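Key result, reporting period 2: structure in, sequence out.
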């Protein structure tokens, strides 16, 4: 079994084109993006000195995000649904709503340059007694 394709697992994203998508590989990033109930969070995976956070520190950060009351509402909870459009529509909507808007372009860059994006919605027990386990 070849593991050659694993190099594209982190720090990359598929960018829609008018006719063809392309893969955009990015340099290693210090952050991931977590999505919880439609709210997108940028989470650093290391401190300002470059020390990588421990699993326990990341679990604590994730648990805190899940308890927050500052959830997105309305249109903001539907942003991810834009990526389910047909390629041409997503290409056009990405340009119209993200690339042509300075603020949204910055947010899109955070998402596209993340190490990875993960949804922390739903039943997170995975057979354990608590989410933290």
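The corresponding designed sequence is given below.
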């Amino acid at each position: 079994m070849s593991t050659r394709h694993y190099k594209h697992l982190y720090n990359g994203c598929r960018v829609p084109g008018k006719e063809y998508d392309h893969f955009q590989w990015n340099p290693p990033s210090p952050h991931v993006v977590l999505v919880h109930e439609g709210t997108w969070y940028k989470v650093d995976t290391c401190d300002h000195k470059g020390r990588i956070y421990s699993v326990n520190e990341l679990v604590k950060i994730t648990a805190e995000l899940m308890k927050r009351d500052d959830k997105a509402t309305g249109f903001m909870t539907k942003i991810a649904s834009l990526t389910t459009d047909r390629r041409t529509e997503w290409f056009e909507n990405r340009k119209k709503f993200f690339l042509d808007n300075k603020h949204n372009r910055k947010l899109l860059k955070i998402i596209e340059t993340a190490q990875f994006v993960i949804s922390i919605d739903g039943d997170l027990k995975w057979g354990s007694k608590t989410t933290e386990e």
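Helices lie at 55-67, 87-99, 102-112. Residues 29 and 115 are 6 Å apart (CA to CA). This case is discussed further under Risks and Mitigation.
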